[in-house]
Design brief:
The chain is an alpha+beta fold. 41% of the residues lie in helices and 18% in strands. The strands form 3 sheets. A 5-stranded antiparallel sheet has the order 1-8-3-6-10, with helices on one face. A 4-stranded antiparallel sheet has the order 2-7-4-5. Strand 4 and strand 5 form a beta hairpin.
């Protein structure tokens, strides 16, 4: 049995530096199955536009400060830079596809088309529905191109992929409305989440105290813990452990460090605790996870 997730999907790296696809063609599609491949993806953000298509089961997608529940055929829309997290909704298995691409794949940033249609979405002046339900008018239009992107993800069909992405963006731009929180007026809760993600990404290998991170975010410890739980549905301590374990899983997949070295690099001072926490989250020990082999994206 293989325990590893399909080709690296979204890891909790704060702002990701990974280029999805390639520099020349920044487009990628990943298949995810929660909890089979991974328990969940904690808060993170990246510069790509992302579509999450629910194939089976149901998923809970947190985008900035709101959470939506996807059912088969639904699509979640995540604009560049939006804080988001992915989890299963309920106890069943959530199978989905991530479609990620950069706006620059479609239009150069200095073009009139980019300035008119894509820049307002990229810089937060306009927003689109975060949850496209299967039976809505947009839900009947958007998945046609979304499914084609999924079906053609392994083929060298750059023109077909671009045509589908143009279809997606045309539908979304027609549904776009002025942002409730205009660019430059970032909501305090969004700022809290972003600061938390950034701080944890920089310091996860070190000892992190609630006092230190709450001070960084401008809150008292008690207020920070309550607000973070209200916004994410989990405690900061649970989030930090999940984050560190995701980092550890990435190193187990892609490095030759020993399990002890990985535990230390990911902020676990006690190797036995690391093994217990990892096994509880992934269902297998770190050693068994590493020996599981690679999955394909199907």
């Amino acid at each position: 049995m293989s325990y590893l997730p399909p080709n690296p999907a979204i890891l909790p790296d704060g702002q990701e530096v990974k280029v999805h696809g390639s520099e020349a063609f920044p487009f990628a599609v990943y298949c995810g199955i929660i909890p089979t491949f991974i328990p969940a993806y904690p808060l993170h953000y990246h510069e790509e536009m992302e579509l999450i298509y629910c194939e089976t089961g149901s998923g809970s997608i947190t985008i900035d400060r709101a959470t939506v529940t996807l059912h088969p055929g639904d699509v979640a829309v995540i604009l560049p830079g939006q804080i988001h997290a992915i989890a299963a909704a309920g106890t069943g298995t959530f199978r989905y596809y991530n479609i990620l691409f950069r706006f620059s794949l479609l239009e150069p940033p200095d073009s009139e088309t980019y300035r008119r249609f894509l820049a307002p979405l990229a810089d937060g002046r306009m927003e689109v529905p975060a949850h496209i339900q299967k039976d809505s008018s947009l839900g009947r239009e958007l998945p046609v191109n979304v499914k084609m992107l999924i079906e053609n993800r392994k083929e060298n069909t750059a023109l077909r992929i671009k045509a589908c992405l143009y279809g997606v963006m045309d539908a979304l731009c027609k549904a776009a409305t002025p942002a409730r929180h205009p660019a430059g007026a970032e909501h305090r809760d969004t700022r809290l989440l972003r600061q938390t993600v950034q701080y944890v990404d920089r310091h996860y290998a070190e000892k992190i105290t609630v006092a230190a991170i709450s001070a960084q975010c401008g809150y008292s410890s008690s207020h920070f813990m309550k607000r973070f739980h209200d916004l994410t549905g989990t405690s900061f301590a649970q989030y930090l452990i999940h984050f560190r374990l995701e980092k550890a899983a990435a190193l187990l997949r892609g490095s030759r460090y020993t399990v002890l070295e990985i535990a230390a690099r990911c902020g676990f001072s006690n190797a036995s605790y690391f093994t217990r926490a990892f096994t509880r989250q992934y269902g297998v020990s770190p050693t068994a996870y590493r020996q599981g082999g690679d999955r394909t994206d199907d």
